[in-house]
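RETRY 2/3 - previous attempt timed out on the joint model. Re-submitting the same 421-residue input unchanged.
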Amino acid sequence: MRTTSSTLTLANWWDHFLARWGVNRSGHRVEPGLYALGDPTPDSPVLVTANYTLSFDALRSALRNTDAYLLVLDTEGINVWCAAGKGTFGTEELGHRIEATELAGIVRHRELILPQLGAPGVNAHEVQRGSGFSVKYGPVRAADLEAYLAAGEAAPEMRRVRFGLLDRVLLMPVELVHVFWPTMGVALLLWLAAGGLFAAGLVSAVAAGVVLFPILLPWIPTRDFTSKGFVLGGTVCTPFALTLLPWKQGGLAWIGPAWAGAFLLMALPVAGFLALNFTGSTPFTSRTGVRREIQKYTRPMAAMLGGGMILLIALIVIGLVSER
Amino acid sequence: MMSSVSAANTLEYDPERCVNCGLCSAVCPHGVFAEGHRAAEVVKAEACMECGACQLNCPSGAIRVESGVGCAYALMRAALKGKKEGGCDCGGDNTCC
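RETRY 2/3 succeeded.
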């Protein structure tokens, strides 16, 4: 059996930082197995978690005044909630881990405390039948564990998942990392072909979808994520469109509005698409709802983007011709 | 009889089969179920995110839900690759969770 403590070191914090930025995404792992935290006795509680460092560290650092056993399942470096969705934080792995660690010979009681968000992967009744250990679902957040252990039950607010500002902001870096290089590539192309203003406008649309969207999510009007992305993208992009509006080329009066139109047709679906993609990061969207939203918006967004690109190419050609 | 509880999701519940063990209200992170007098009650049907925890932990088969992840990225990728909507495939270098 390994030992651990509730103290997080500088190396732990650095590891968390790298995980948040998506560096070596699946490499933030702890060894699966049984850990002694503090000085546990055969009557100490057994708490189950995933072998993702952020999960394991959240658990142990929340137990400053508790001696306990930590049973770490092999979830391949994935957090409890996502691993439960995949089934790796699941009935089978739990049963296997109970046997492999010979837990029954180490503790006198027959009770396991699981994080509530592990429940989509675990059938409590089946675990009991298979191993003799009864499953108790603890609170959603490790921070509530000591209060839960003291009370012996979870208060209703401990059972609710929250998605507060900090939770949302912590997800931003990994989203940023994903879009950074593609955005820079497209922006460079646009800068060369259509000018710096157009390119800067597109970067703003991406920033609206990836940075502003998570921050402002609860306050953006409309229900669907995609339309929220349109609202936010539209707000951010309007100044760029207004600047493009008075452009003149070869004395053509409509050319400015056409540039503004091409820009908005391309920028809005970008913001909308990024907003739609954020559904996977939230803890409250259902597959039924997301599927409905994809069906509703995919074609209009593709049409807008395609139309905007055709218009842009036409405008670039007109510009080249009129310069001659 | 199983009956749908909201148009927004696939959750179905049959209170006749409920043995009132209380697990569904313990596992639901959105307070969809609440412990009732004789059977669990659905109190916030529209909040269901189809994680499937209640169905998996229900000992009497009183709850049914088509569980899956509400992740547009995963659904679109499944559609593009012509795969079944298995769930989020992240874990390698991809993320959606």
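Chain A touches chain B through 49 residues (CB under 8 Å). Closing ticket.
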